[in-house]
Specification:
The chain is of the alpha/beta class. The chain contains 12 helices and 9 strands.
Length: about 300
């Protein structure tokens, strides 16, 4: 009977120009380019398990090349790695030390980790457009406020705002086209019927739902980073805070959706009950955004329509 081949564990600390690769105590440096990473992976035999530090974009070349070769990849965010470093009492913080730490983390916790899977192309595109729109909106607000008092630049200010508004309109059209081409338009309409949910928060919810296969609404809420961290010891009860592990732009859109929903007939009573229980305004909006996300998940999962609201 043939023996199963155990996958080799590799820790990969990612930087803008280089990645540090560790297997045990041995560490090597590889240029963070697709060609260099492919050459490095070509020198390794057997199945690999890679613990890769999660960054904004710098980890993508490693992840894509490893998945293309059939290796298993685990993304580890910087916060989790930092907590692991503190738990082990490691005092050194360097790229090489982090690569070794990632290798050690994968060896110890690999069986409990979930392998990373590439998102559908449409989901990636929707997220890119939503993030681009958020940056343009922030730029528009900054220009409008910073140049408002400069009378000599009034025409320049207006021209910039007009151009930015045109770019925002273009992104909105691209979002609608992306939803249509991916076959997500019906899902977007389904979630947009929820009072408080607009086109942007609807697109964000649809993209998040199609990112993976969620076994429950709780898993979806945790993916969005809207789940609560509980800190308790004996009779001590710490303040509960959001895990914030998901995309912050999705949470921002849902928070704004909750602010709008709190003024609608369907959700006004729920929001007022939260406030009556003693929740602060922000906490009540967060709880309402979680409620909106749960309802959207149920509609998307069951492919059902929202029932008409019947006030008590």
């Amino acid at each position: 009977m043939a023996m199963a081949v155990r996958a080799r564990c590799v820790g990969v600390d990612v930087g803008k120009e280089f990645v540090e690769v560790a297997e045990g105590e041995a560490v090597m440096r590889v240029a963070n380019t697709p060609a260099a990473i492919r050459r490095w992976l070509g020198t390794l035999s057997g199945p690999l398990q890679l613990a890769v530090e999660s960054t904004q974009r710098y980890h993508e070349a490693v992840v894509h090349a490893a998945l293309a070769r059939g290796h298993r990849v685990y993304l580890v965010d910087a916060c989790r790695l930092s907590r692991y470093r503190e738990a082990l009492g490691v005092r050194v913080k360097s790229d090489a030390a982090d690569a070794r730490l990632l290798w050690r983390y994968l060896r110890a916790e690999g069986e409990r980790l979930r392998p990373y899977e590439l998102a559908p192309r449409a989901v990636t595109r929707l997220r890119e457009l939503l993030h681009a729109r958020a940056r343009l909106t922030a730029a528009k607000v900054t220009i409008a406020q910073s140049l408002a008092a400069v009378g000599a630049l009034a025409r320049t200010r207006q021209a910039l705002l007009t151009r930015l508004q045109g770019a925002l309109a273009l992104i909105d059209r691209r979002l609608a086209a992306c939803l249509r081409e991916a076959g997500y338009s019906a899902d977007a309409r389904r979630t947009a019927r929820i009072p408080g949910i607009g086109p942007l928060s609807s697109a964000a919810l649809v993209a998040s739902f199609h990112r993976g296969c969620f076994v429950s609404a709780d898993a979806f809420i945790a993916y969005l980073g809207l789940d609560l961290r509980v800190r308790e010891s004996g009779r001590w009860r710490g303040q509960r805070k959001l895990s914030k592990r998901g995309d912050p732009e999705v949470r921002r859109l849902l928070f704004n959706a909750a602010r709008a929903a709190a003024r609608t007939a369907r959700w006004r009573g729920y929001y007022e009950r939260l406030r009556a229980r003693g929740l602060a305004t922000t906490a009540a909006y967060v709880a309402l955004s979680r409620k909106l996300a749960r309802l959207a998940f149920a509609l998307l999962r069951d492919q059902s329509e929202l029932r008409p609201h019947r006030p008590a």
